Recover the amino acids of this structure.
């Protein structure tokens, strides 16, 4: 199975900060990488697919980049509603596998 | 508006069975692969199984292979997960999700396996 490693596992940030989350695949996955945001007690919400394509309705402050094995999710100006846990997912190879998550805290 | 609504969760004893359902609306159900994803309490996300539009292909995580069965009824726009031989480690919120990149998720249904 492809292992997805997210770093850091948690980070503290302030409103207005620019934050960058990392996701590394144990082998190349082209651009078959998605990012999700999850708030406590809620279902995950899709933010980005194909490494850099923003889902309809997702604010442009979210951006994704990377291909192969290294990927990043950037939030350009953190707002209170962005404090959550973020997961990456590779869907290039079965089984689809998620990273362990990055918790963004105040 | 795309909606996925899971049901069927609950408390079950180890070794027991449960069937989850997911009612889909707001999109052409027959055009999409569908998946089940689970999340143990306080843990990360784990893909469980998925199924092709016409049920001709089904895939399972090793952790559930031989115990869980995914199915769908395209006449009812519904997805199912039959879970047998349940273990404590299967305790989780179970989500249904649309297609291979999980673009839409339901709200989840909690399955608790405990005596």
């Amino acid at each position: 199975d492809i292992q997805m490693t997210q770093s850091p596992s948690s980070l503290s940030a302030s409103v207005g900060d620019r934050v960058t989350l990392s996701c590394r695949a144990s082998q190349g996955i082209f651009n078959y990488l998605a990012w999700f945001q999850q708030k406590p007690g809620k279902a995950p919400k899709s933010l980005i697919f194909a490494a850099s394509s923003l889902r309809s309705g997702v604010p442009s402050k979210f951006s994704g980049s990377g291909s192969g094995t290294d990927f990043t999710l950037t939030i350009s100006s953190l707002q209170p509603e962005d404090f959550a846990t973020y997961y990456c997912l590779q869907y290039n190879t079965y089984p689809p596998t998620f990273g362990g998550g990055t918790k963004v805290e105040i | 508006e795309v909606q996925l609504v899971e049901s069927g969760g609950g408390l079950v004893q180890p070794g027991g069975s449960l069937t989850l359902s997911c009612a889909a609306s707001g999109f052409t159900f027959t055009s999409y692969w569908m998946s089940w994803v689970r999340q143990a309490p306080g843990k990360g996300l784990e893909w469980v199984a998925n199924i092709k539009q016409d049920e001709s292909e089904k895939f399972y995580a090793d952790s559930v292979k031989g115990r869980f069965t995914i199915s769908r009824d395209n006449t009812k726009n519904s997805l199912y997960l039959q879970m047998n031989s349940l273990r404590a480690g299967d305790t989780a919120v179970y989500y249904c999700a649309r297609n291979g990149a999980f673009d839409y998720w339901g709200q989840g249904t909690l399955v608790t396996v405990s005596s």
In short: The mean pLDDT of chain B is 97. Chain B touches chain A at residues 35, 44-47, 59, 61-62, 95, 100-108 (CB under 8 Å). Chain B is about 0% helix and 50% strand. The longest strand of chain B covers residues 18-25.
